[in-house]
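U., I forgot to send this yesterday:
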Amino acid sequence: MTDQTADLGEYIAKYHSVFSRKTTSKGQCRIFGMENRPLLKKGQKNRVLLYAGCFNPPHLGHYSILRRAFEASQDINAIAAIVLPVDDDRVQGKCKKIGQSLVLPKSERVRLWRSDAKILPEWWIYDGSTEEWKWLWKDLKVAIKMDGFDLRFTNVLGPDHISRFGSYSGLNWGCYETITSDAGRQSDLVKANGSLFTLPGGFTP
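Result:
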């Protein structure tokens, strides 16, 4: 590394270890793989994909959406992806609403993600609370900006969360950019001829 690049994982490790002593996170997890370490580079927008969800349990469709989104975003400098399983109370609320009895604790949902051999080394499975994430996200952006790097978080949504028939504000999890994919299930954003519909509010996929 030079003064023009920096290891994203080292920034995360610094602030994640601080918050993990105060919250539910174990703080000892591996942040990204040993190979293909995500590097921040000066002079470009460094995008990190943020994929949040219940993942109860994580399955091939979840993996396929993130894999497609990550591989298709290299031209916009997507250097890493962070998977954020939401807190247990949110999963319990969703399951109660839809009448589902299976409710896996976050620790198990995180374990299932991390144990998948297909996970890319540029991906990190976050294990803290969503409240902890808010503070970690803010501190990361400030610290990285102070060192002269441009960091952007881009939200990843499955087609069940973004539809041409639903409302979409364009802002989710603090991200002003969103990527979706039909890799896991069919999307109603795609026309029969392969072109895309415009979302309500003028958003164009």
